[in-house]
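User: I'm designing a mutation panel for Transporter and want to avoid disrupting the core. Could you give me a predicted structure to guide residue selection? Please restate the sequence first so the numbering is unambiguous.

Assistant: Good idea. Sequence first, for numbering, then the predicted structure tokens:
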Amino acid sequence: MQPFFTFLQQNPYLLLFFVVGLAVYIGRASIKGYGLGMVAGAIVVGAGLAVWSSSYGVKLELNNFTKSLFYYLFMYGVGLRVGPSFLNSLRGDGIKFVFLAVVSSVIGLALVVIFAKLFDLPTGAAGGMLAGSQTMSAAIGSAEQAITSGVVKLPEGMKPEDATGMIALSYGITYIWGTVGIILICKYLPRWWGIDAKAAAKKYEKDFGVKDLEGGGLTGYRQFGLRAYRLENPAQVGMSIAKFRSIHPEYRIVNVARGGEPQGADPDLVLQKGDVVALGGTTEHLTDKMGLIGPEVADTAALGIPMDQADILVTNKEMVGRTFESFRDTAIAGQLQVTKVERGGVPLAAGLKTELQRMDIVSVVGLKSAVNELGEMWGRIARTNTSTDLLTLAVGMILGFLIGRIEFPAFGAKIGLGNAGGLLLSGVIVSSVVSRLRFFGNTPNAARNVLEDLGLVVFVSIVGINAGAGLLAQLTGAIALKIFIAGFIACTIPPFIVWAIGFHVFKINPAVLMGGVAGARSHSGPCREAAVEIQSTVPWIGFPVAYAVSGILLTVFGYFAMILAQ
């Protein structure tokens, strides 16, 4: 094996992407739905490979510049994703979930710091325990920033790479329960409280018109339809389209063909016997009154209406706070349907009473004219665009580095957000500005996902490789046990406190609160499992706001965990 490890040592980029590829492969494996994930897999693979090579006298190590670059790209990508949701959360009912996220994050930080001091753990353990117990891998980077910036004073004889290794070690020990524990807690908290969350979800669905957006998959059922009928019923002959709509508001006449030629759907157009009427509405309504107009026909002229599907980005401030139900009386109602809603980068179980928020992404399908009209009304149509505004990316990165240079006195030293925190804040600022000024700054979701996913997994892979050689020298059974106990407690206690506050103080629906607890830990896995447990997508309603807030807090708290645990 020595020639193989020597080859990897001499080809650092081959080494890097060998670890990244293995991490992604291992991260996909799961046992009954539970797995490491690619980030934890990167730590395990990187550190394991480095330890293995060291037994042959080969030290694997990668460039710190590369490590920092990818971490900075990741942090900026996180800021772009959570920015609009973070700002939207600071009003209305979102404040409740903001509070829950703050409580969970602060308690997690406090417990980690307390046990790091109580157990007299080595420098670096606090940052790693926070990242692992709260399943916030990004906190590894901010914890490391506290070391490289010199804010954390290392004990005599300890090298920076030893502290970085302890961060990685503590993360690996606490991550498993951090992941499995929060999933189990979120799934069974209502049951432990004596609450039927499934019944609570059904009540919420009924009260707010929420339907299952995930369970159907690809089926033959379509909620809305468009059909053509030849007008033979004398009751409708001589009636204008506007009058027909006032009598039958559940239907929309979207086109009329007369003599084989399309006439459009002007409200003043008077229907004549023999006209072929293209009628839109729900599947139930279209099959409810079969003889309302006449027999159904397959008419190309009537049904040859341009259709479209698009993602609409909500930017019009006049639309913020309005429910989907409030658009029922508009002219385009019945001409399109909402297929998906995303908020803060995650799917939202939307219903009739769901209120629109700025930067919601609403996927619709229907008549092209109706889609365009809705886009103008709500904000803009976000067509698939593979181009990225690299100028905005460069400006945002520069702004982040400048913010990171700002320092202020605290804890007996000068501290600041650092490059990572500055880039996170810069991403929030840029995404918020872009949401208001529509003519620049395009960063497609796919491009942002590359910044986040590749940035984080490459960074963590390098951390694991560089830390691996020194892990065995630092690891003892006593230290490992203390780290596990501290991580176990820091993972387990905050969700119970968050649940108690949300249920007893804020009176949040238990099904929604399940998602709020998952979001407060910035982990989508528990929310997904909760939705499966109660067979409803309602938990996703409580997830986005808490997820955005805790994502920012826990990332930054890795830095403060290192400082406070000194």
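For picking mutation sites, this is relevant: Residues 212-218 have pLDDT under 50 and may be disordered. The two ends are 41 Å apart (CA to CA).
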